[in-house]
Amino acid sequence: MAHTIGNPLSWTARNLGAAGHYLGEATERLGGDHTVAMPQTRRLEMADIGHALRAGWGDFLAGRSDVMFLVLVYPVVGLVLMGFALHMQLLPLLLPLVMGFALLGPVAAVGLYEMSRRREAGQTASWIDGLGVLRSPRFGAILVLGLYLAGLFLGWMLTARGIYALTLGPAAPASASAFLRDVATTPAGWLMAVAGSAVGACFALLALATSVVSFPMLLDRNVSVPVAVATSVRLMRENPRVVLSWGALIGAALSLAAIPLLLGLVIVLPVLGHASWHFYRRAVV
């Protein structure tokens, strides 16, 4: 029988309804099932990063997941950034917004994890199958962890605003050129850049430690949010060099991809999303 999705509105409503049902169930399980053994992590090598990237590239070519991100992510991010650029009072937050987008990467990549999981299992792996994660019984726990990252992103944006207010602010810059000149040539601008980079690195480190494998684990296994986060933190503690290198690679790739009018994100986001699934499979027994 041919596989169809029917009317898009009814399909979306049906999936959102299922997601709401599973969210309620997941909320009851957030404390975790103490009878389930804690997942075991592996000792990682730098070669595991290369393996994950190659496997992610293979999934990208096979699944055409560029379509998924072209339709869902790229226009949204582009409109948000353009909206910020049109308001001078929010201009100082433009760069923190672009850099902070990496904090939400694991949430945006959940559908890609599902595509890689299905392809690994020999099942169909189109972007429609990726969206089918909305109907997964594990989606509620994934959503809860996603809300945590959204809160972390909001905290970073408020902190970046505060740093600007204490250095070059609180008044809005007169123009984009004046703002860039102040950042590059004044002590207050240098202080803002150094403080923003240091604090931003702390936010990025916290996000990496708690989410490096937790999102794909919630999709792959029937574990609670605390167990997934604890496993992610333990993996980083036991493999700091590899995990920090993986996080730095993701941050650098997303930053470079955002430079040419965000066009690079059409390829970089799907490849990194697929690769993150394979990094999880290499990292957790």
TrEMBL record:
<feature type="transmembrane region" description="Helical">
    <location>
        <begin position="243"/>
        <end position="272"/>
    </location>
</feature>
<dbReference type="Pfam" id="PF09955">
    <property type="entry name" value="DUF2189"/>
</dbReference>
<feature type="transmembrane region" description="Helical">
    <location>
        <begin position="139"/>
        <end position="157"/>
    </location>
</feature>
<dbReference type="InterPro" id="IPR018692">
    <property type="entry name" value="DUF2189"/>
</dbReference>
<protein>
    <submittedName>
        <fullName>DUF2189 domain-containing protein</fullName>
    </submittedName>
</protein>
<feature type="transmembrane region" description="Helical">
    <location>
        <begin position="163"/>
        <end position="180"/>
    </location>
</feature>
<feature type="transmembrane region" description="Helical">
    <location>
        <begin position="67"/>
        <end position="87"/>
    </location>
</feature>
<feature type="transmembrane region" description="Helical">
    <location>
        <begin position="192"/>
        <end position="219"/>
    </location>
</feature>
<keyword id="KW-0472">Membrane</keyword>
<feature type="transmembrane region" description="Helical">
    <location>
        <begin position="93"/>
        <end position="113"/>
    </location>
</feature>
<keyword id="KW-1133">Transmembrane helix</keyword>
<keyword id="KW-0812">Transmembrane</keyword>
